[in-house]
Every structure is written in structure tokens, then in C-alpha cells.
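Fig. S4 source data, part A: sequence.
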Amino acid sequence: MSMNYNMAGGASNLLKKGHSASGGIDEAVLKNIEAAKQLSVMVASSLGPNGMNKLVVNHLNKIIVTSDCATLVKELEVQHPAASMLSLASQMQDQEFGDGTNLTVSIAGELLRLAADLLQEGLHPSEIVAGYKTAFDYTLETLPKLVCHRVEDPRDPVALKRAIKSVLMAKQLGHEEKLASLVSEASLVVMAGEGKARLKADSVRIVKLIGGNIEQSTVMKGMLLPRSAEGTITKVDKAKICVFGCELASEGTETQGTVLIRNAEDMLNYNKSEEKALEEVIAALAGTGCNVVVANGTVSEMALHFLEKYKIMVVRTPSKWDIRRLCATVGATALVRLGAPTPEEMGACHRVHVKEFGAKKVCIFEQEGSEDTLVASIVLRSSVVSVINDLERACEDGLACVQHLCQDPKFLPGAGATEIEVASRLKKLADETDSLDQYAIRKFGEAFESIPRVLADNSGQDATVVVAKLYAAHAKSAEASPPPPPGAATSPSGPNVGVDIEATNGGVKDVLADGIFDLMVTKESAIRLAVDAALTVLRVDQIIMSKPAGTKK
């Protein structure tokens, strides 16, 4: 070990061989900003209903075609530490709210891009951070004032469908009506009852069946297992169900032993004793009135023979997750021992039957009539694997929206209307600020312009014209303007004016009339995570990287 230190070598001479260190505005801050900006540019073209798909081939050579930002940043395996902060923020937004992931990455990347302009103009990173914090606090105070819609009763099917349509439209434009009907119907099934409406995350199961088209998708009150029954019995009405969390076979001994068989008669007697013990268990099971058995493990041929003899339908599923959901559906308790259940441990179902979808046979536990179920199933149909996977992601986002609107039913105007209104108010705040924070506050407001700008670009319009019309519409209050003369064409105005993606060029419209909303808690969380990620990157002034493990000296 050398005790000499070369002062001219800098920090790299302080570390072991193979380490690297870089610092300063040019070497650390601007490079981090550039990496984060590249990630935001990559996913920005997937924002909105007209967002483009990305084709990703992961390390397992699996082809993924999607416009979902959470899936993209997860499959991209981002390596740069600064860009990975934006990736982690997007993943956290997806885990908490299921939607707004692209908004998180886009705003964070735009904040960092505009911060780079301020750095080149001579501002210190600490001054930019202080200005961004002031603007962020003002934004959180402004958002509740822009609420334009509330869902008073989440159990109202019309109001629920209208609230979630915008979320689904952003993922699957053209199929939002069908998907909104599926999600709202499934949500209402599990939210039935008295008291405050509440939707659990695992109450609605999404089953993908290849074949057919999206119009053949349906909702089932109950649960669907993507496999057929084991025996010849494929339909049972008014089913009494027993669920086993173990295999259906003869129990083995806990210790090893040796059985001495001298002749053929001993062999027959040994087999008969095993058969007799298993038949007694199945007979006791049938004596309780059970006519459907669900097993979490294998079903032996001998057990299947006796179950068929006593007219008991057998269904096997290897998934413990499906076993838990099935128990919640039918009201049963999973048994870990092979034996007759008590009446409290058994479940009930209106009908258990096997149905064929194309070439796929599935087993359906269907609840009808007066029975209440805690689980509903959305059956999605499509002939293309990538399409059905995107439909599943859209339904998951819709269910997440239902789950959070039950807790906070406030909605903000969508289609970039909220972002332009916040940007307008932040520019006024910057004009009223005398300190150096005014520059960062103004840039913070400009960052929100990126959302309507990207929406206009993705829909093939001139983004500059659209943003200018939006600013003009938001500046001209509908109440303050004089009434137009009779027969004159009127342009929309007010804080609810957003981008019209169906217009040919420079189109804006009142999004409140068209029912385009964004859930407020989702947008608040997306902005908070984006600002946190951007400020974390701006606070880094030095990058120190150790030698990767496993490399040669």
C-alpha cells in the first residue's frame, strides 16, 4: 500500500484502480440531465390516445409491443444512475396508482432540460432547487381549485363509466366504450352492498383467452380457471365445494419403512387396504353433500376413480393465488389435510361448468341470483398476443382508477387543460417574484407545456399553434368576456379547454363537455414523484463509480 498521494491526480488518484470520478456542472450535472432527458424523449411519443407503440426485445428474446410507460421502463433495464431515478419514480407511480407513469417521466425530463438552460445562464443548482420547490408548493395549492367533476356515488354505473373512460381512452383509443363497460360492470359486482364503496386490488381477476375479438369480451360474476375439469363430470348446479390446499392421493408415511410381500395374495391385500382407506375418505367427503372438489396439487388415478364413483366433479389448479381467490369467491376454507370438511369450511356456488372458448377449455365458478361474491372476472378476447396484453394493462389502469376514486372522487380537466392552467398561473407568480427564484418558477411552468405539446404532436397537429390557442383560451375567462353577437362563431374559453386530438390542425375544445377527466390524486402523485426525481438529480454534483465486480484487474 502506497502512502504517497499525487495532488495533481485529483479524486481518481485517491481511489483504487478501476474506479472513476467526475464532478462539476459539465461533467456531472449536465451529463445526468442529458441521460434523464433521453429517457423522457423516448417515452414522450407514447403519451396520450394517439401515442405510438414501442417494440422491445428483452433479454429472454420476448417481443413486447406496447405504449405503456411502466412496461417500457421496466423492460428497458436502464443502467445510467440518473435515468434510473426517473425509471424508479415511474415504477412507484405504477405501483401506487396504476396510471400517470408517462406523465411522471415526461415532466421530470422537461424540468431537467429547462434546468440545464438555467445552469448555462449562470444560476447555481441550489437556486434552481429553491425555485422549483416554491413552484411545486404553489402547484399543489392550485390543483384543488381546478376540480371540475366529482363522482358522488361510485355505485352509479353511468357516473362510474364516465369517470374511467378517459383512463381507458389513453391506452386503447376506439375501444374505450367496451372496456369502460367491462371495468365498471366488474367493479359494481364486487362493490355491491351497504356502506362506503370500496374496491380491493385483487377483487377483479383479468383472464386472457386468445381468439375472437374484443367485442366478445365479457364479465362473469365469479371466477374462471383457465383449465378444464379432471374427470368426466363437467357441470354441477347448486355446487357444494370443498377446497384442498394439498394433493388428492394416498398419504405417505412420515418415515421410511419396508413392506415384506411374500406372494401375490399379499400384494393384492396391500393394494386393497390402500384403496379401502382412500375410498373411506372420499365416501366421507360425499356424505357431507360435497359435489365439487378443488385441489391445489396432483390428483391420483385412484382418487379420481373414487371421485367419479361418487359423482364428484374434480378441478385442479397449481396456483396458490388462484386457490385464495377461489376461496373468497365461494366462501370456502382451504384444507391442508385430506378428509371430510365441516359445514363452515365448505363453499357454495350457483353453477360450476366447463366452457370452451375457441380451442381453450376453462372452468367457470359462476355466482348468480341472490348469492354475493367478492370476486368478479373480466374475460378478454383477442387474436393477437400483444393486443390482449395491452388490453389487460388498460383494464388494470381502469380498475386502479375505480379503486382510488372511491377514496377521493375529485377529477381535474384532462387533455392538457390542467397543465396549461397551472403553467399560466405559475408565470403570473414568477412575474410577481423579485428574487432569483422567478427564473426557476417560470421554467417550472414551461415544463407543464410539454404535455399539451406532446399531445398535439402525437395527433399530427402543429404544437405551437395548439399551445398558443390554449393560452389564449385560458386567459379569456368565459364569465368576463362579453356575449358574442348572434350568429357569430364562438371559441371555447376558460380553465377547462384542452387539446382536441380529433381536429385537423390547432384544435381546442371544452373537455368538460366531452367528459375527459384526470383523477386528481393520480396527477398530484405523478407531479410529486417527477419533482422529487428531478431535484434529486439536480443535487448531484459528483459521480463516483466503483470498478464493476467480476472484471479483470
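Fig. S4 source data, part B ends here. The chain is about 45% helix and 15% strand.
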